[in-house]
Design brief:
The chain has 490 residues and is α/β, with parallel strands linked by helices. The chain is built from 21 helices and 11 strands. The protein is globular, with a radius of gyration of 24 Å.
């Protein structure tokens, strides 16, 4: 039997899968991480660049404050970050200097574990990302392969790809990522042994599988039976649905199969209760178990992308096109050479399918992102590309541009552009986000009640002789009175 460790993904992948990446706030992080720290998790998957961006864009919160809040309140548990190594916040390629700054800041602020996954299986790029992460201070780097189904993605294909990572000293272990929840127990029993047999130095010892069509609670149990000892899970209300297996049920099932897993179930219950209260207060959705859907294997489009597509079609008053767009996405994926349907490629595929359906002609209009993909900005596509589509893309003005333009930018250049006195953290945000969003965040942070209280306390510190201080900002006013000092008793 296997000694199993658990990784909690509620705050990152659960949030992205169930709450559209916008549900978690810094205040919630402050409330829940001390409870999660009690559980005994192998790690907490805290953030991705998407989570950092939504903190700024939707909540006007400093994402670095959020990371530090988790670090300070969960000192016994590793905090982790997921990266593709190709883009950071933006949907286009991110220059290496920006990535190195991002990794440096993540490590500086308390992230010690990094998952590196390249959806195109550009393993040379994944190894460079791992080496950069170790160079700037990450303790642990876990690289992975990304599972999907297609004529290209055979067991032999995956085994050849994972073998390319085996000689990288910067990688500590390997994991299997199933972003669409397509893995079955039967496929796992053939895939895992072939993956393991292709490795000589590293070990495949971790699995991440979504519950999109209800398979992953069984799949991860099968993984434990095969000796994989680190399983990803989530807590209600952020478990099941498009997220991951429910942690409490997973523990019970593992123990029923004879596996050993040492966790504090009371800590899990307390953290889950906190998140459920927040969902009720903020009217956030509560995930439920999804039924099996055989048709999902045809298009493999994540639930979050489907819901966004429905909303966008409704906004342009064409909701009746949804089924046609999903069907067209199947053909677009094949024509693009079978990329894995995960962010950002899922969005690229659906956007192009929508253009095809609305214009009434396949590839009459090409999105910039699809042109970038075909130009090779994200690495070689896994299968053969429709030649007519490729010719159209490369004949456009964008297709003839140099995709590496701007790749040699330096931090010094960024400072000249955005300001020499900015903190590293703010500089990074300004390099990858719209200025007005970062401006709104910094303004909100400067005028928040917490900032006002901090200013007030600083004004009446130990060395001050003031007996009364009052500070107001906007419609908020605070006042403090110093109690008279008692005379010393002689």
């Amino acid at each position: 039997m296997t000694d199993v460790s658990l990784v909690d993904v509620s705050l990152r992948d659960g949030n992205q899968s169930i709450w559209g990446a916008t549900g978690i706030t810094t205040r919630m992080i402050e409330g829940v991480t001390p409870l999660l720290d009690r559980v005994g998790y192998r790690a907490l998957e805290l953030a991705s660049s998407t989570i950092l961006a939504t903190a700024v864009r939707y909540h006007r919160e400093d994402p670095w404050d959020r990371i530090r809040a988790a670090r300070d309140r969960a000192p016994n548990t590793k905090l982790g970050f997921l990266t593709t190594g190709k883009r950071f916040i933006t949907f286009h390629r991110t220059p290496d200097a920006v990535f190195e700054l991002a990794f440096t800041l993540l490590a500086r602020n308390g992230i010690t574990r990094l998952w590196v996954i390249d959806p195109m299986h550009d393993m040379a790029g994944a190894k460079r990302t791992a080496e950069m992460a170790k160079r700037v201070g990450f303790d642990e780097v876990v690289a992975g392969i990304c599972y999907t189904t297609s004529p290209v993605h055979t067991d032999a294909h995956f085994a050849a790809k994972i073998a390319e990572l085996d000689d990288c000293a910067a990688i500590d272990s390997l994991y299997l990522k199933d972003p669409a929840g397509l893995l079955t127990s039967e496929r796992l029993r053939t895939l895992v042994p072939q993956l393991q047999s292709s490795l000589r130095t590293l070990k495949l010892d971790e699995i991440h599988s979504h519950s999109t069509i209800g398979l992953s609670p069984i799949t991860v149990l099968e993984a434990a039976d095969l000796g994989i000892s680190t399983l990803h899970c989530a807590l209600p209300p952020l478990a099941n649905g498009g997220s991951h297996p429910e942690a409490q049920r997973l523990v019970a099932n593992l123990r029923a199969r004879g596996h050993r897993v040492e966790v504090d179930l009371d800590g899990m219950a307390a953290a889950s209760a906190y998140l459920q209260r927040q969902a009720k207060i903020k009217n956030l959705p509560v995930a439920s178990v999804n039924e099996y859907d055989e048709a999902y294997y045809r298009h493999t489009i994540p639930g979050g992308v489907q819901s966004t597509t429905r909303r966008q079609l409704t906004e342009i008053r064409r909701p009746e096109l949804f089924d046609a767009v999903i069907e067209e996405a199947v053909q677009v994926r094949e024509d693009l050479g079978w990329p894995i349907v995960m962010t950002p490629f899922a969005q690229y595929i659906v956007a192009q399918a929508t253009l095809n359906v609305i214009t009434g002609e396949r590839y009459k209009q090409l999105s910039d992102e699809v042109i970038d993909l075909l130009r090779g900005d994200f690495g070689p596509l896994p299968g053969p590309v429709n030649q007519d589509l490729l010719d159209r893309a490369l004949a456009t003005r964008r297709g003839q541009q140099n995709g590496s333009e701007g790749a040699d930018i330096t931090v010094a250049e960024l400072r000249r552009r955005f300001g020499r006195t900015l903190s590293d953290e703010e500089l990074l945000l300004r390099a990858v986000m719209p200025a007005e969003q970062v401006d709104a965040m910094t303004a909100a942070k400067a005028h928040s009640p917490a900032a006002t209280v901090k200013q007030l306390l600083g004004s009446i510190g130990e060395r001050s002789t003031a007996t009364h201080v009052e500070i107001s900002t906007g419609d908020i006013r605070f006042s403090l009175d110093r109690a008279p000092r008692k005379a010393a008793v002689s």
